[in-house]
Amino acid sequence: MGLDTAEAQSSLKFGFYKTTCPTAEQIVRDTVNETVTLNPGMAAGILRLYFHDCFVRGCDASLLIKTVPGNEIESEQDSGANAGTLRGFDIIDQAKAKLEAACPNTVSCADILAFAARDSTTTVGGFSYAIPSGRRDGRTSNIGEVNLPSPASDLNALKRAFIAKGLSVVDIIALSGAHSIGRAGCNFVTPRLYSFNGTRGADPLLDPKYAAFLKTKCPKSSGISSGTTDLDPVSGNRLDNQYYRNLKQHRVLFSSDETLLDSAMTARLVANYANDSNAWRRDFVAAMVRLGSVGVLTGTKGEIRKNCGAIN
């Protein structure tokens, strides 16, 4: 992966564009705020882009590269974990177009994505944070390298995946709070409702009333259900600590959420975040900054893409 997360963090800088493009962060902020205020669901889309990008090859905007027709290697966008479910590319593209007009060949798509994730947090969560920048864009996107934690992951699988990226168990629990916004396709939910672990029933850990509610959103069918349901049934357009209250009540969509109660340490963190929104916000911000430092390209590595969807 190159630089580890701690070294990468030190190679990024707060206010990296202060002299080369002073309005860079404001342009991204205005673009995100305008769109997400009208459609709060897009905040979840942008946060997911950020996570899915940084978890594969590091935060180099490789996820934004589109497959080139006729190219034998498909891009990350076409993997099963991403295909047809990613949202927010147009917001990144809008910000990039404005930045190319204001400061050509200066601001990377990787930094735009990091800023946009931060600004989405502000718009739907009401809190902000400083994030260092100076990332450069990668020149490779390969479907074969996509290895993201799945909604069915258990705690050990999550730990292995995050620790391999230089992230901690605290980061896992704090970042999972992003599941307080957004929606999920019923195809990710129905196995837990109708055929859990090869049975003909629901996951016994699911709150029965919540399971019954989910079955109205994702009815059993012979094919894959095409519907969607909110990740957080209480305040689905607000990035807050409601997710942890839902989790304590076993009212969460994925096994990868439920598994956060599987150890004394992680269950203690869940309870702390459920009771103390400031503690969660503090750890979420720290985790978002650490995530943004994974495998970054800096200095003369990579490039500054003119178009986020294609290498120069």
Brief synopsis:
With 312 residues, the protein is mostly helical.
Structural class: mainly alpha
The whole-angstrom Rg is 19 Å
Q: With helices defined by DSSP (H or I, 4 residues minimum), what is the helix count?
A: 13
CATH class division of the largest domain: Mainly Alpha
Low-confidence regions? none
Order of helices and strands: HHHHHHHEHHEHHHH
Q: Strand order across the biggest sheet?
A: 1-2
Q: Distance between termini?
A: 23 Å
Query: How many domains in all?
Result: 2
Per CATH, the architecture of the largest domain is: Orthogonal Bundle
Q: What spatial form do the alpha-carbon principal axes imply?
A: globular
Strand content: under 5%
| Main sheet makeup | 2 strands, antiparallel
The overall pLDDT average reads 93
Count of individual beta strands: 2
What is the CATH third-level topology name of the largest domain?
A: Peroxidase, domain 1
What does this structure look like?
There is one protein chain. By secondary structure, the protein is an all-alpha fold. It has two domains: 5-148, Orthogonal Bundle (Peroxidase, domain 1); 155-287, Peroxidase, domain 2 (Orthogonal Bundle), CATH 1.10.420. The chain is built from 13 helices and two strands. The chain has helices at 5-11, 24-38, 41-54, 89-102, 109-125, 155-163, 169-175, 186-194, 208-217, 242-248, 255-258, 264-275, 277-291; strands spanning 183-185, 228-230. Helix 10 crosses helix 12 (264-275). The longest helix has 17 residues, at 109-125. It is globular and about 55 Å long.
